[in-house]
Amino acid sequence: MNRFLLALFLLLASFGPSFAVNPDEVLADPALEARARALSAELRCMVCQNQSIDDSNAELAKDLRVLVRERLVNGDSDAAVIDYVVSRYGEFVLLKPRLETKTMILWGMPILLLLAGAATLLVASVKRSRQSRGTPLSDDEKEKLKKLLQP
Predict the structure, then answer these.
(1) Assessment of whether the complete model's pTM goes beyond 0.85
(2) Under a CB-based contact definition with an 8 Å cutoff, are residues 92 and 43 in contact?
């Protein structure tokens, strides 16, 4: 039974996320490799579009991983590497867009939607409370009601 559970665990563990970085891409300097991995996790694979280049097996992702490592080896800072890749592929290559004037709508939309939802709920609540109160009965209506309720 223990062997079965071990085999099942190993099988399920193999379905987890795997990194697509090939051994020939790994830098000898562990500090540079850690920086390269961090930068690769921030860049979108232009083929897969929902994965970082660190997770993608696409050829373009491999080329971008190699490019990032080359730039780091040449002495570029992390910001310089990101700026270089963005200048070649556009802002879409960033998994987390920068906070700039052209991305304010993207960043502000969740807040605007929450505020709009809260305002809609508030207006609906006020309308419902006004409707439930109703208008007071006139004297004629009170008299008619008394006559109807008397036995």
Answers:
(1) no
(2) no
H or E segment to which residue 55 belongs = none
121/123 Cα distance (integer angstroms): 6
Q: Output the six-digit token pair for 55.
A: 């997770």
| Local confidence pLDDT in tens for the 151 residues of the chain | 777 776 766 655 554 444 556 666 667 778 888 888 888 888 888 888 788 888 888 888 888 888 988 898 898 898 999 999 898 988 888 888 777 787 778 778 899 999 999 999 999 998 888 776 767 788 998 899 888 998 7
Residue 45: both structure tokens together: 């694979």
- Non-local (6+) Cβ contacts of 42 within 8 A are 52, 82, 94, 95, 96
Give residue 90's region: left, alpha or beta (phi > 0; psi -120 to 50): left
Q: What is the DSSP letter of 25?
A: G
Rounded CA separation 123/118 (Å): 9
Q: Radius of gyration (Cα) for the chain, nearest Å?
A: 31
- Distance of alpha carbon 12 from alpha carbon 21, whole angstroms: 21
